[in-house]
Amino acid sequence: MKPIQVGLLGIGTVGSGVFNVLQRNHDEIRRRAGRDIAVTMVADLDETRARAVVGDQAAVVKDAREVIANPDIDVVIELIGGYGVAKTLVLEAIAAGKHVVTANKALLAVHGSEIFKAAADKGVMVAYEAAVAGGIPIIKALREGLTANQIQWIAGIINGTTNFILSEMRDKGLDFDVVLKEAQRLGYAEADPTFDIEGVDAAHKATLMSAIAFGVPVQFDKAYVEGITKLSSIDIRYAEQLGYRIKLLGITKRTDKGIELRVHPSLVPAKRLIANVEGAMNAVVVHGDAVGTTLYYGKGAGSEPTASAVIADLVDIARLEGADVAHRVPPLAFQSSTLREAGQELPVLPMADITTSYYLRMRVADEAGVLAKVTGLLAGAGISIDAVLQREADEIGGEGSTQTDLIILTHETREGDMDKALAEIQGLPTVLAPITRIRKEELN
Ligand code: HSE
Predict the structure, then answer these.
(1) What are the start and end residues of each CATH 3.30.70.260 domain in the chain?
(2) Relative orientation angle of helices 47-54 and 13-24, to the nearest 10 degrees
(3) How does pLDDT run across 120-152, given as a tens digit for each residue?
(4) Read out DSSP for 38-102?
(5) How close is the Cα of 281 to the center of ligand 1, in Å?
(6) Chain centroid to CA 343
(7) What percent of the chain shows pLDDT beyond 90?
(8) Which of 105, 132, 161, 303 has the most ligand 1 atoms within 8 A of CB, as the residue to mutate?
(9) Phi/psi class of residue 5: alpha, beta or left (left: φ > 0; alpha: ψ in -120 to 50)?
């Protein structure tokens, strides 16, 4: 069979991983794909860097459009990132009849509907295993391995940078700002870490998993996104004392009223496997009605782990190229004609309508009746308490302190009811500082 010729747009960390793994494992990959897969052209603004990676094995150009215009190229791998030029180039590659492989979660979470439609109209494939959780084959698992199931919920640690920061905060008792600087010094966090620490990167990935799991269009604009920047090490410590770890989770859940799609710090029972995923590692828990709970763990970033996912997509394309379009796996797992209506029947719920349990920390005056008032207001809103922890006043403000921290764990409730109760509690004169609220997921 004729070799598949690949053009690479961007040969930084992931691109060089793709090139190197394809070279190193060439024979086995060919035996699996049934044909040769060769990167024959690379576009990068830094031609010297590109040449250093590919030597004389591939043509190097500065202009990505030269790759797209080359009629010999079958597949374009987009590793530029972002929503700007990457979007234009992906659409141009599709228009030119090329299959596309991309690791660009931001692009697909925001413009996926347009891109998948353009690809369907042109009869080409857009593959994106590397866009979610790097080397973990979670797209394949959701889209194919679990295809028998009604997926009920997914919860994932899908951003390594923030998981590294949270692990360090817990291990060393350090504050967020200190650990972030250290993470940047070590190269774990980007110079501009905004997308990671504000939860945006995780929300892009959760959006893609949500669409695949529930057969709805990508709806990043409806995701609730809260990062870890306001998390205090004291909450990590209290959570530990109560038997929980704090993780930044990307969550999507099917309910009777619609879909929950949210990213925020969450208390997770320390005994859950996912609570013990440390450092920059990723993990995703998927619960399906037939299979029960499954867990996927591995490296969510890095040169060769991400290349592993990109090359898996290349092999899929090499196997299916030339096959009837009807034999391909739809990009979002469900046939595209069924997506729009399903999105209307199964809307993404506003945060007020999600259901979860909570960790609350309030700095209160250490005097009679305070706890009764707080629990009375929670009870009035129909919120049931699971556990209460009160620190010795001396531990909080030193000897003779008249303030203390009250920590309350609740059972599940509607977020809108919790908002209302918290507004009332915050108004009590004995509540002395803004209340900290962190959602809690039992994941059982
Ligand atoms: N910046 C991401 C992370 C990796 O920290 O996990 C790429 O998605």
Answers:
(1) 356-440
(2) 20
(3) 999 999 999 999 999 999 999 999 999 999 999
(4) EEEEEE-S-HHHHHHHHTTSSEEES-HHHHHH-TT--EEEE-S-SSSHHHHHHHHHHHTT-EEEE
(5) 10
(6) 20
(7) 89
(8) 161
(9) beta
Of 87, 105, 205, 440, the active-site residue reads 205
Q: Would you tell me how many other CB atoms lie within 10 Å of the CB of residue 131?
A: 26
Topology classification of domain 138-299: Dihydrodipicolinate Reductase; domain 2 (3.30.360)
Query: What CATH architecture is 4-135+304-337?
Result: 3-Layer(aba) Sandwich (3.40)
Give per-residue pLDDT as tens, 295-346.
999 999 999 999 999 999 999 999 998 788 888 999 999 999 898 788 888 9
Tell me the two tokens of residue 51: 């040449």
**Each residue's pLDDT tens digit, 215-240:** 999 999 999 999 999 999 999 999 99
Task: Tell me, rounded to whole angstroms, the distance of Cα 156 from its chain centroid.
Answer: 7
Q: In this structure, which residue's CA is closest to atom 7 in ligand 1?
A: 301
* Residue owning tokens 């080409």: 124
pLDDT in tens, 184-193: 988 878 778 9
Both structure tokens of 109? 């979470």
Q: 193 C-alpha vs ligand 1 centroid, how far in Å?
A: 10
Query: Which residue's alpha carbon is at the smallest distance from atom 2 of ligand 1?
Result: 159
Active site residue 257: no
| CATH 3.30.360.10 domain residues, the chain | 138-299
Confidence of residue 394 (pLDDT cuts 50, 70, 90): low
CATH superfamily of 356-440: ACT domain (3.30.70.260)
In the chain, CATH 3.40.50.720 sits at 4-135+304-337
Residues with C-beta less than 6 Å from any ligand 1 atom: 159-161, 196, 201, 300-301
Residue 186: exposure state from Cβ atoms within 10 A (0-12, 13-18, ≥19)? exposed
| Site to substitute for ligand 1 among 14, 132, 159, 194, most atoms within 8 A of C-beta | 159
* Protein residue with its CA nearest to atom 4 in ligand 1: 301
Q: In whole angstroms, what is the distance from residue 139 CA to residue 240 CA? A: 32
Probe ligand 1: pick from 196, 198, 278, max atoms within 8 Å of CB? 196
- In this structure, what token pair is assigned to residue 444? 């059982």
